[in-house]
Structures are given as C-alpha cells and as structure tokens.
Write a structure and sequence with these properties.
Layout: E1 2-6, H1 13-24, E2 28-30, H2 31-40, H3 44-53, H4 61-72, E3 81-84, H5 90-102, E4 109-114, H6 117-125, E5 127-130, E6 136-138, E7 157-158, H7 165-179, H8 181-188, E8 192-196, H9 201-216
Parallel strand pairs: 1-3, 1-4, 2-3, 4-8
Antiparallel strand pairs: 5-6, 5-7
The protein binds BIS(adenosine)-5'-pentaphosphate (AP5) and magnesium ion (MG).
C-alpha cells in the first residue's frame, strides 16, 4: 500500500506510523526523522534544515521534494510506503502526484488524523524521545516503564528542540496556513480517510486497521 499520514504537529502521526509499519510491513518515510538524522550527523542538509526547524517553520519545498524523490526511487519502497510529514504543502503534493504518475503508481489512502488544536500543545510538549533509537513516549499518555529511560534500548529520553510551547504554537500556525489545504486537495481525489485523533492511542490504532483492512480487501 502507498500511504500518507497527515495531521497537525503532535497529532500522533509518528506514534501510529510505528504501528502501521509493524502491522502492515510498510517502509516508513518521515521527512522530520530524515532531517533530525542529518542534524545529528552534522551534514550540510542538517544545518540548513535546522535553521528552519528550530523556528517551527517549514524547510523549503525544493529541498524536501528532492530528498523524498530520491528516497522513493529506492528498491525497498516500490511495493509500498508510508509517508509521514510529507507532503506538507500543495506544491509538495503536486510533485508527489507527478512523480508517482511517471512510475504508473498512485496513493491508496491519506490517513488524516483529526485533532482539536487545544490538545496538540500538551501532546507535543509532553513528548520524550529516545536519544539513541528515536522511540517516542509521552510523560502522561504513553510513559516509559522507568522514568527518563527508553523501554526498548535503555537509552536516555530527551525532549525535541522544537517541542517548546512557543515553537509548537508556531508549528500549529504553519500547519493551518500551509498544510491544512491538503485535506481538501486529497478529498477531491477521493483519497482522504479521516481518523478521530482525540481518542486514545489504542482506539486510533484499531480505527486505522479497519480503514486499511478495507483497502486490502
Ligand atoms: P515532523 O517531525 O514531521 O513533526 P510534526 O509534523 O510537527 O509532527 P510531530 O512529529 O511533532 O507529531 P506527530 O504527529 O508525529 O506526533 P507523535 O506521534 O510524536 O517535522 C518537524 C519539522 O521538520 C517541521 O516543523 C519542519 O521544519 C520540518 N519538516 C518535516 N517535514 C517537512 C516537509 N515535508 N516540508 C517542510 N518541512 C518539513 O505524538 C506526539 C505526542 O503525543 C507523543 O508524546 C505521543 O506519545 C503522544 N500521543 C500520540 N497519540 C496520542 C493519543 N492518541 N493520545 C494521547 N497522546 C498521544
Ligand atoms: Mg512525528
């Protein structure tokens, strides 16, 4: 399956993506993770991306589109993928459509995690991620077994640089201005599957399984 997971910052895209990847054996492509990996490794791309990410702004389209096209050209994603955090502007979505069309491919679903803005800040600010493996937790809604320690590899849990309240608020504003128009864009293509994101993690998981099982049959 070729999937996109869409939703505002802190909606739960990454949390559900981890589950979809495991359950449906689909490679996960997160542009945010690609940038964070580049920042960690001190690459030029990482330096450029960081200057935007720290302010809560989007990395310029031309930079993001090239990275995704390159990733989507690899062998392991020819049968399917889950895009998380891309596309994020109409220009990115148009490029993705054109790229897939050239290859005789198309998307199967755009899972839109729909959450009220008031709970997004709490979700993002309470998030903790493992410094070594990237696993994500929440201090209240998805706590690790031991405080500050990753369940999977015992790595230290840290806060993302862009998870301060002020930056999260900018990211939400940017989402409404530049990314939310994609809801109508994909609705018009008959690809949008709305998921009620205010439910708990397990309930959302079940809703996604129902939607995706429906596509498989
Ligand atoms: P990115 O990494 O994509 O961040 P984002 O879109 O802001 O989304 P998040 O990762 O913050 O949230 P999420 O929806 O994955 O939530 P999560 O599952 O972790 O992008 C970061 C930056 O990179 C951007 O600002 C931009 O600068 C740049 N960038 C990336 N892609 C780009 C692109 N295509 N174009 C341009 N720039 C780009 O959950 C959040 C927390 O809530 C966790 O703690 C989790 O445990 C908890 N939680 C999850 N679900 C629930 C639930 N149902 N109930 C309670 N708690 C929950
Ligand atoms: Mg994420």
């Amino acid at each position: 399956m070729r999937l996109v997971i869409l939703g505002p910052p802190g909606a739960g895209k990454g949390t559900q993506a981890d589950f979809i990847v495991e359950n449906f054996k689909t490679p996960h492509i997160s542009t945010g993770d690609i940038f964070r990996e580049n920042i960690k490794n001190g690459t030029d791309l990482g330096k450029k991306a960081k200057s935007y990410m720290d302010k809560g702004l989007l990395v310029p389209d031309e930079l993001v589109i090239e990275i995704v096209k390159d990733r989507l050209s690899k062998d392991d994603v020819q049968e399917g993928f889950l895009l998380d955090g891309f596309p994020r502007t109409v220009a990115q979505a148009v490029s993705l459509d054109a790229f897939l069309e050239e290859r005789g491919q198309s998307l199967d679903s755009v899972l839109n995690i729909d959450v009220d803005t008031d709970i997004l800040v709490e979700r993002a600010v309470g998030r903790r991620v493992c410094k070594t493996c990237g696993a994500s937790y929440h201090v209240k809604y998805n706590p690790p077994k031991e405080d500050g320690v990753c369940d999977k590899d015992q790595g230290p849990l840290i806060q993302r640089d862009d998870d301060t309240e002020a930056t999260v608020k900018t990211r939400i504003k940017v989402y409404f201005e530049q990314t939310a128009p994609l809801i109508d864009y994909y609705k018009a293509q008959g690809l949008l599957d709305n998921i009620d994101g205010k439910e708990d993690i397990d309930t959302i998981r079940k809703e996604i399984v129902e939607v995706l099982d429906g596509k498989n049959n």
